[in-house]
Amino acid sequence: MTNNTLKKYAHSLRLSGLLSTLDLRLKEAETSRLPYHQFLEMVFQDELNVREQRTIARRQKAADFREIPSLDNFDFAFNACIDRARIYELAACHFIREQRDALLVGPPGVGKSHLAQAIGIEAIKAGFLVLYRSVFDLVRELSLEATQAAESRLLGKYLKPDLLIID
């Protein structure tokens, strides 16, 4: 079977992750004399990795974050009052699994929005659905809905995610 045939099959089966690394994996298998099962394991893992990255990207877009911050680039030295361990505990998403709430309180400019969105990113990576809204957007959306059906749809939108972040 030629590489072109394999590529056609991968394309037909919509295995774009496998397709993108197929040439590299075939060369790797040939030079390292990999057993068939090990080669298949690698190409399947490539496919799973691409699908997972696409899922994360889709969920980040659906969450509607203002930015995509991370905990790694948050300057905890900027505000010594922030308990780093507690923030990382929230990022582990146990409170979501336990269906508990979290409230970040403080004056403007101390990093609450950054941390809330970064925790939301970690929740998405953990497989949760997340929605981010400013309180102003939330109020505007609620006030614009005139019919009861539209209100029900909007309420469903806010109740669907595992984590609703209201900033």
What key phrases describe this protein's structure?
mainly alpha; Rossmann fold; 2 domains; two-stranded parallel sheet; 8 helices
Fold topology:
Blueprint: H1 3-12, H2 16-32, H3 36-63, H4 84-91, H5 94-97, H6 112-125, E1 130-133, H7 135-144, H8 148-159, E2 163-166
Parallel strand pairs: 1-2
Helix pairs in contact: 1-2, 2-3, 3-6, 4-6
Q: Return the structural class.
A: mainly alpha
Q: How many helix segments?
A: 8
The Rg value, from CA coordinates, equals 22 Å
When the domains are counted, the total is 2
Description:
The protein has 167 residues and is mainly alpha-helical. The chain folds into 2 domains: 3-63, no CATH class; 76-166, P-loop containing nucleotide triphosphate hydrolases (Rossmann fold), CATH 3.40.50. 62% of the residues lie in helices and 5% in strands. It is built from 8 helices and 2 strands. It has helices at 3-12, 16-32, 36-63, 84-91, 94-97, 112-125, 135-144, 148-159; strands spanning 130-133, 163-166. The chain has a two-stranded parallel ribbon with strand order 1-2. The protein is extended and about 60 Å long. The chain starts with a helix and ends with a strand.
